[in-house]
Amino acid sequence: MDGSAERTLLITLTGRDRPGVTSRLFRTLSQFPLTVADVEQVVIRGRLVLGVLLAYTEGADIGRVWNAAERVANDLDMEIELSTGRNKRMPKRSGRLHVTVLGNPLMPAAMAGIAGRISAHGANIDRIERLAQNPVTCIEMDVSGADPDGLRAALTAEAVEQRVDVAVQHSGLHRRAKRLIVMDVDSTLIQGEVIELLAEHAGCLDEVAKVTEAAMRGELDFEGSLRERVALLAGLDASAIDSVRDRLRLAAGARTMVRTLKRLDYKFAIVSGGFTQVTDALVEDLGIDYSAANTLEIQNGKLTGRVTGQVIDRAGKAAALERFAREAGVPISQTVAIGDGANDLDMLQAAGLGIAYNAKPVVRQAADTAVNVPYLDTIVFLLGISREEVEAADAQDSQGGDPLEPPSRAGRSSRHG
């Protein structure tokens, strides 16, 4: 075709979705000297919107094409819109980003605010797709022409105002490459803090909980606070650890997240300021690839009130992430770190994507994005995986249950579920 004389015809079909609509339209169009310039299709609650942009030369009999397309619409009992124009090749827009919005519920005002911020930064929304609608609504937008840092700051402020979660990530092939997930354990992978469960047995829960909370807010040095809390457990019978292990409950959606991403060849690591006597069992149960944690010293069946070896603190967690990435053969840019406390900050900032999960304010402010809904598997949406894809994979898995049911109900047969 002569590019200087190229014209376009945009056909938009709208109506009840059913099998064969797209094929019927293209079979009809195949009778004419046309080329396909673009196609978009979306189905919302059983209603189909199909847009086809066709290119043709100036001498083509477009009236016959128009009539044929209208006959297809009439036969299918669908509405049709047709418009012609010139095929103006748009310059490639830079700064392509994924903007993911999580809401429970997601209100129109939130979408208006997010879209307004994007527009105010001179960016364009090229595509919008729903990734999930239960138990949270997740919308992903492809955005071009924006400065990532500026847009992220603006959308973070809007997210706080609208009470939604927003993530801004670079677009590209890296999103589909093998990645390493590195997770905190206490109050992230599992519900609650192991040291506080042990403190219940030792009769010092209030004192330990107060120190833990201050440490997670970043008000205390983690190593010093850990040794202080562990010292309060001196003399506790080691059988208390078994009791705590049996009481563990995974965060809602944890098992689904691990299962789904491991199907996609992701590697998983846990790194904890807690204790190997607990994390080792989680590694076995969930099929975790790498782990690092502290170890309680036990002598004559009793806790001594000390830990052995180097303490896994804030810097130790970041070092573990880098070590696991090397062992997995994954560049740091392909790592995802998830945590909730101040001792996770170095790890979150070192990772390619740092996610603050139901985190303290200091952590939310420093992380790339924050997730504040109580479902750990919503993190798969940030990686571009839809709920429908999760459910389809679970349907093929003989052990697949309700992917978003809290593990304490969905996985009762499992020791930690």
TrEMBL record:
<dbReference type="Pfam" id="PF13740">
    <property type="entry name" value="ACT_6"/>
</dbReference>
<keyword id="KW-0479">Metal-binding</keyword>
<dbReference type="GO" id="GO:0006564">
    <property type="term" value="P:L-serine biosynthetic process"/>
</dbReference>
<keyword id="KW-0718">Serine biosynthesis</keyword>
<dbReference type="InterPro" id="IPR036412">
    <property type="entry name" value="HAD-like_sf"/>
</dbReference>
<feature type="region of interest" description="Disordered">
    <location>
        <begin position="392"/>
        <end position="417"/>
    </location>
</feature>
<dbReference type="GO" id="GO:0005737">
    <property type="term" value="C:cytoplasm"/>
</dbReference>
<keyword id="KW-0028">Amino-acid biosynthesis</keyword>
<dbReference type="InterPro" id="IPR004469">
    <property type="entry name" value="PSP"/>
</dbReference>
<dbReference type="GO" id="GO:0036424">
    <property type="term" value="F:L-phosphoserine phosphatase activity"/>
</dbReference>
<dbReference type="Pfam" id="PF12710">
    <property type="entry name" value="HAD"/>
</dbReference>
<keyword id="KW-0460">Magnesium</keyword>
<dbReference type="InterPro" id="IPR050582">
    <property type="entry name" value="HAD-like_SerB"/>
</dbReference>
<dbReference type="InterPro" id="IPR023214">
    <property type="entry name" value="HAD_sf"/>
</dbReference>
<dbReference type="GO" id="GO:0000287">
    <property type="term" value="F:magnesium ion binding"/>
</dbReference>
<keyword id="KW-0378">Hydrolase</keyword>
<dbReference type="InterPro" id="IPR002912">
    <property type="entry name" value="ACT_dom"/>
</dbReference>
<dbReference type="InterPro" id="IPR045865">
    <property type="entry name" value="ACT-like_dom_sf"/>
</dbReference>
<protein>
    <recommendedName>
        <fullName>phosphoserine phosphatase</fullName>
        <ecNumber>3.1.3.3</ecNumber>
    </recommendedName>
</protein>
<comment type="similarity">
    <text>Belongs to the HAD-like hydrolase superfamily. SerB family.</text>
</comment>
<comment type="pathway">
    <text>Amino-acid biosynthesis; L-serine biosynthesis; L-serine from 3-phospho-D-glycerate: step 3/3.</text>
</comment>
<feature type="domain" description="ACT">
    <location>
        <begin position="10"/>
        <end position="89"/>
    </location>
</feature>
<feature type="active site" description="Proton donor">
    <location>
        <position position="186"/>
    </location>
</feature>
<feature type="active site" description="Nucleophile">
    <location>
        <position position="184"/>
    </location>
</feature>
<dbReference type="Pfam" id="PF21086">
    <property type="entry name" value="ACT_PSP_2"/>
</dbReference>
<dbReference type="InterPro" id="IPR049148">
    <property type="entry name" value="PSP_ACT"/>
</dbReference>
